[in-house]
Amino acid sequence: MVEAFSIVLFAVLTTTLLVVRILYVISQTSKPIRKSSQKHLSTLVVLGSGGHTAEMINLLSVMQKDRFAPRFYIAAATDNMSLQKAHVFEEMLDDKTSLQGPRDTQFMQIYRSREVGQSYITSVGTTLLALAHALWLMIKIRPQVILCNGPGTCIPICAIAFIFKVQVLAFWHFPGYVCLELFQVLGIRWSYIFYVESIARVKRLSLSGLLLYKLRMADQLFVQWPQLQKQYPRAHYVGRLM
């Protein structure tokens, strides 16, 4: 009887703490980001095929390069062109400026959740593989900032970053007692997720943007058309960036 009560109590406490933590994380989204005293912020940049990479490079060109460094570029495993463009961009920075601070830029690839034309049944397995790969990359990189602008490649990464924000409940069980503790997974830091919707999206968010908006995973979501901001009030209108 006592053991059964302990199990029920543990389940209630676990659920309550988890719900409270999730609500706290959600409540922090769309709020102004606290200014950091750190001089450099490790930044994970998610690239996508087509116009996504062009828009991202254009956005990076007007950012404070020395502050958002080191930079880690990630593209889908089947997208070599985007990483080539990122290589060219970084080489241009090396030629034009002598930036102070960390410059160990890295270029990585991640499995796609679903290829174009792939059946939804088989995409279940590839999605799980993409999540596992995203987990490994997030543990390896531990970015302070995640910057993305539409490709579906960003969803597994943002999902893992959100889970790390929620943290994990750990417990030990020994005769007669259940001990509960909150701890942060493997020392993963809070990663701020900034999502900039593509300029091509005038009336509706892309599927990636819609997921991040509805699930409140993005800390800040920016749109480039005023009518889009009216339809999604928690988004921020920043004007045309291209």
UniProtKB/TrEMBL annotation:
One annotated GO molecular function: N-acetylglucosaminyldiphosphodolichol N-acetylglucosaminyltransferase activity
Subcellular location: Endoplasmic reticulum membrane
Annotated transmembrane regions: 6-24, 44-63, 120-139, 146-164, 170-195
GO cellular-component term (any): UDP-N-acetylglucosamine transferase complex
Record-linked InterPro entries: Oligosacch_biosynth_Alg14
Membrane topology classification: Single-pass membrane protein
Assigned keywords, A-Z: Endoplasmic reticulum, Membrane, Transmembrane, Transmembrane helix
UniProt cross-references to Pfam families, sorted A to Z: Alg14
Family, as annotated: Belongs to the ALG14 family.
Protein name: UDP-N-acetylglucosamine transferase subunit ALG14
